Amino acid sequence: MGLPKMNNNVAMRNIFWDRIYEHARQDKNVMLVCADMGAPALDKFRRDMPDQYINVGIAEHSMVALAAGLTREGKNVYTYAIAPFATSRCHEFIKLNCGLMKLPIKIVGIGPGFGYEDSGPTHHTTEDISIMRPIPNLEIYSPCDSVCATAIADLTYKSGKPAYIRLDRQILPIIYKEGTDFTKGFEELKKSNGGTLIVSTGNMVHVAIEAANKITSEDLSPGIVDIYRIKPLNSEALTDVLFNYNRVITLEEHMLDGGLGSLIAETIMDNDIPVIQRRMGLRDYIYAYGGRKNIQKACGIDVDSVIKVIEQ
Predict the structure, then answer these.
(1) H-only helix segments in the chain
(2) Whole-angstrom distance, CA of residue 80 vs CA of residue 207
(3) Which residue among 5, 100, 206, 211 is least packed, with the fewest CB closer than 10 Å?
(4) Same domain (yes/no): 93, 221
């Protein structure tokens, strides 16, 4: 399977909420609880269904607590906030209400990684996977394009389980075809005979694709796997893929401690897979501005850095 054609599309945040809006128009039990200023993508939700929309202001803890009460009364609740405020600021509430109580609240965090590069370190989200993975019963989704985000909107709407959905705010190219089945949890976007595989998630899948497209040597050209459902990981199917490679590079816009690289390392160890892994991610917090690509370059997770690791 070759690399998919990459075309422009709309931001996954917008397409995700458009789909939830469609469900809410038909199902009065669907409710949206957001914090702070909300977003333009929510304007028509607020305008057309005011009884299904609540803004708690700058009170993210209350957002989750209110969502829990509504869920107990039979509502299908989505919450919305910028990713660091939707996760780390509300962590205990999510652990208790979503995890231990198994309330099927859908926590939507916008701009993971350096998605809010213009807002600085307070809005960077480079540890959300680490802190959300241990929460029991909580599913974690990390789409890389709008087609996948739309499918996740449908999956979570029908699901009776709590979930954390990390959506990028920027416009990213389309990777998947309409109608793709996303129940598997990951997709091998590109196979390789060179023995090297890049495993990534979210916006960094696009960095992996760009790096692979710049490598002209067939012997070095890597395979690519997109993990769009981080938890529960489909480890059995992923193990079958990993056995076909000698080297694995995990690429993430996230701290290495407890992130995607740790998840894949656990899979390799638990299943005795004879493969060498190289983790590419953040080794510490970075206090930087200057655009997302420049921050990625400073962290050594940009396209050129990926190519260099492959060549080495």
Answers:
(1) 12-26, 43-48, 60-72, 83-86, 91-93, 128-132, 146-158, 204-214, 235-242, 260-270, 292-299, 303-311
(2) 27
(3) 5
(4) no
64 and 120 together in one domain: yes
Number of domains in the chain: 2
- Select from 177, 188, 112, 113 the least CA-distant residue to 151: 177
pLDDT tens-digit profile of 31-76?
Answer: 999 998 778 889 999 999 999 999 999 999 999 999 999 999 999 9
Residue 167's H or E segment, with its range, is strand 163-167
In terms of domains, do 191 and 288 share one?
Answer: yes
Q: Which domain holds residue 82?
A: 12-167
**Pick from 3, 4, 5, 15: which is nearest to 171 by CA?**
15
Radius of gyration of the chain (CA): 19
Domain-embedded: residue 179: no
DSSP state of 293: H
Angle (CA) 122 231 86, round 5°:
25
Q: What is the pLDDT of residues 142-201, one digit of tens each?
A: 999 999 999 999 999 999 999 999 999 999 999 999 999 999 999 999 999 779 999 999
Domain boundary among the residues 137, 167, 197 is at 167
Q: Alpha-carbon distance 141 to 175, whole Å?
A: 16
130 and 199, same domain (yes or no): no
Position 92 in a domain: yes
Residues 6+ apart with CB under 8 A from 136: 99, 100
**Tokens linked to 115:** 């998605």
Task: Write the pLDDT tens digit of every residue in 218-261.
Answer: 788 899 999 999 999 999 999 999 999 999 999 999 999 999 99
- How is residue 40 annotated by DSSP? G
Structure tokens at 116: 């809010």
Angle between helices 303-311 and 204-214 (to 10 degrees): 60
**pTM here?**
0.94
